[in-house]
Amino acid sequence: MISPFLRSTALGLALAGPALAADPSLDLVGPLSDYKIFVAENTAQLVSDAEAFTAAIKAGDLDKAKALFAPTRTSYERVEPIAELFSDLDVSIDARADDYEKAEQDPGFTGFHRIEYGLWSEGSTQGLEGHADRLLADIRELDSRITALTFPPEVVVGGAAVLMEEVAATKISGEEDRYSRTDLWDFDANFEGAEKIYTLFRPLIADGEADFVAKVDGNFQAVREVLAKYETPEGGFVSYEELTDSDRNILSAKVNTLAEDLATLRGKLGLG
Predict the structure, then answer these.
(1) What domains are defined for the chain?
(2) Which phi and psi angles does 34 have, rounded to 5°?
C-alpha cells in the first residue's frame, strides 16, 4: 500500500482517466493495451487464488491457508499501482495494523494483513471467516472496476518507479508481511510488475536512449540475481528472517538504483 499522497494523486488521475487517455500518442496505445491485458490477467488470477484461500480458511485448514497466503498476494502486488487507484478497496484489502488506533485489535483492520495476523500470530483460522469473505468480495469488486477503467498513461508508466520506490522506502524494513515473513514474495511480484511496465514501453525509447536502456536493463538483471539467491527449490522464497542486515542493505541499494532510473521514464516518454 503506497502513501496517501501518491494514492490521492493516482486517484485523481484515474477519475480524469478518459480525458487524460482520450488522445494519447499513437505510440503509447499498443503498450497501454498490452498492460491492461496484463493487469486483467492478474486480477482474474487474484480472484481465483482468493477463492481457494478463502475456502481453506473457512474449512479450518490452517496449514493450507498459510501456504496459500503469499502466492495469493502476488497477483495484487504485480499490479499495485493500478489497484491502488481505488483507495477504498486498497485500504480494505492491504492496510497494515499501524493504520488503526487499536492496531491488530481494531475492528476496522481487515484484509490480507488481518488474516495474516490471525494465521501466524494467533495460529488459527477461527474468527477469520468474515475477514476472508470480505477480502474475496473486495477482490471481486476490484476486478470489476479495473475492467471498466481507462488506464491513465502517466500512472501506468510512473507505476514502474512507484513499485520499486515502495520496496526501497518501506518494504525493505520488513514491515509489511511482519507476521508471516513472506516479504520476498511481495518484493518479487513488485519487481515483476515494474519490469513488465518497463519492457512494454522500452521499445519507444530504445533508439534514442540507448545508454539509459542499457543501464536499466543491467539494473533489472542485478535485482533479479539478488532475488534468485533466496528462491527455494519448491518455488517461492525463504523467510525474510533469513536475510542478514548486509543482505537487506545490498537489496535496498539495488532497488534504489532501479527506482531512481525508472523515475525518469515518464519524462523520456514525454509524459511530464
Answers:
(1) 26-151 (1.20.1420.20), 152-271 (1.20.1420.20)
(2) -65, -35
- Length reported for the chain: 272
What's the pLDDT at 95? 94
pLDDT at residue 1, rounded to an integer: 59
Q: Is 161 left (phi over 0), alpha (psi -120 to 50) or beta?
A: alpha
Which residues of the chain carry a pLDDT beneath 50?
2-24
DSSP structure string for 110-163: -SHHHHHIIIIIS---TT-HHHHHHHHHHHHHHHHHHHT----HHHHHHHHHHH
3-state secondary structure of 77: helix
Cell output for 205: 525509447
* pLDDT at site 216: 96
* Of residues 25, 36, 26, 13, the one with CA closest to residue 148: 36
Report d(CA 227, CA 196) in Å as an integer.
Answer: 17
The residues near 146 (Cβ < 8 Å, ≥ 6 apart) are 39, 40, 43, 79, 82, 83
